[in-house]
């Protein structure tokens, strides 16, 4: 329900506005706008529950998730012309986990 709402409220309008100005590879990264809004809403919910100042860690998590999702879509769409998208390997999973946890190290 929430992803459908964000898709209709954020993703589709932004895509419609920028569709004529961007090529198909750049349009994949419009989903990041939806993840930014989702992160901001989660920060707001955490603020209401804890009454502590937002640290923007949750928003950063959602932004990273959006960037990696868009990058994965771009790689798979490019590879789909020649072959199907391969499953994620263990080494690339470890690399992504390391990147996401860099601020915590």
From TrEMBL:
Signal peptide: none annotated. Residues 4-64 form the Wax synthase domain. It is found in: Membrane. It is a multi-pass membrane protein. InterPro entries: Wax_synthase (IPR044851), Wax_synthase_dom (IPR032805). The keyword Signal does not apply. It is an enzyme of class 2 (transferase). Catalyzes the final step in the synthesis of long-chain linear esters (waxes). PANTHER family: LONG-CHAIN-ALCOHOL O-FATTY-ACYLTRANSFERASE 10-RELATED (PTHR31595:SF41), LONG-CHAIN-ALCOHOL O-FATTY-ACYLTRANSFERASE 3-RELATED (PTHR31595). This is long-chain-alcohol O-fatty-acyltransferase. It comes from Brassica oleracea var. oleracea.
């Amino acid at each position: 329900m929430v992803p459908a709402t964000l898709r209709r409220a954020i993703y589709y309008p932004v895509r419609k506005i920028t569709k004529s100005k961007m090529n198909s590879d750049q349009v994949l990264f419009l989903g990041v706008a939806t993840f930014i809004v989702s992160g901001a809403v989660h920060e707001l919910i955490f603020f209401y529950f804890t009454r502590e100042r937002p640290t923007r860690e949750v928003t950063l998590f959602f932004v990273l998730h959006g960037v990696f999702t868009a990058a994965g879509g771009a790689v798979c769409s490019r590879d789909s012309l020649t072959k199907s998208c391969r499953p994620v390997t263990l080494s690339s999973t470890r690399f992504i986990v390391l990147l996401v946890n860099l601020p915590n190290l």
